[in-house]
């Protein structure tokens, strides 16, 4: 949480002054606990059963289909769809957990 606050303040400072020193210090900080991800979308899991990494979701429910839920639209996408893992706000979830949390499948996709 502290590193997030520092990053926001640094970005505000850079925007006002054009100074990139603060950003360089933030990137090299060894205390940052922000998880890294290989998928292009921003991961912001908000509740239990939502994961930032696909392999975490697969470990949680190895026999269920893993879907990418768009947290803002409440719609989930299957692997192979262009939106899978790439919406601005989302998480990897087991399909059964997604439906239990009130998400629905995208209408233009078929279950794999």
Topology:
Elements: H1 2-17, H2 21-27, E1 50-51, H3 54-60, E2 66-70, E3 75-78, E4 90-94, H4 95-100, E5 104-105
Parallel strand pairs: 3-5
Antiparallel strand pairs: 1-4, 2-3, 2-4
Helix pairs in contact: 1-2
Report on this model:
The structure is a single chain. Helices cover 32% and strands 16% of the residues. A five-stranded mixed sheet has the order 1-4-2-3-5. The chain contains four helices and five strands, in the order ααβαβββαβ. Helix 1 packs antiparallel against helix 2. It is globular. The model is unreliable at 19-41 (pLDDT under 50). It has 112 residues and is α+β, with helices and mostly antiparallel strands. The N and C termini lie far apart (38 Å). The protein folds into two domains: 1-34, no CATH class; 50-105, no CATH class.
């Amino acid at each position: 949480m502290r590193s997030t606050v520092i990053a926001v303040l640094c970005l505000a400072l850079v925007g006002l002054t054009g100074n990139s020193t603060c950003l360089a210090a933030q990137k090299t900080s060894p205390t940052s606990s922000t998880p890294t991800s290989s998928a292009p979308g921003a991961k912001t899991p908000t509740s239990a059963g939502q994961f930032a990494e696909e392999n975490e979701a697969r470990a949680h429910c190895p026999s269920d289909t893993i879907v990418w839920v768009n947290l803002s639209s409440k719609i989930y996408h299957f692997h192979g769809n262009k939106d899978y893992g790439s919406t601005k706000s989302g998480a990897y979830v087991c399909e059964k957990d997604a439906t239990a949390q009130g998400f629905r499948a995208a209408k233009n996709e078929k279950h794999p």
